[in-house]
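Q: Could you fold this chain for me?
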Amino acid sequence: MNALERKAKHQEGLVFFQQGNFSEAIEIFSDAHMTYGAHVALLADIAISYLQLGDEVAAQNIRHLLEEEYFQASPLLSEDSHVETLIFLSKMRELNKEVASALKALESALEFTEGNFSLKTRVLTELIDLKTRLEESYK
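A: Sure. Below is the predicted structure, expressed as structure tokens.
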């Protein structure tokens, strides 16, 4: 796999993504995925694109691929990548009504924030937001 080629293809898809042309973005992202293999950011952008098109089933299917890739790539990821991926997975799990699993993802993300105040604040904010949404849903 050529990481630079995958990244260039991903960037090409991001142009369409940022323009709101999610169908075209999915085509380009999917081509990059098939040609160069899985990558956490690429899979997250595919899932978000499906969500933007209203296809939650496809988004959740991609989420499962993302979870597999995350666990395989985990030793190679930076703290930022761990945190961002776990926050994303938390949101996808919450969307799928897997609240306990969403909370667990955020708690796992906290483990990667030691000594990084900015990351820790981001994760704690997500935890507070999730717990607030949970409390609101019980009212």
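A (continued): The radius of gyration is 16 Å.
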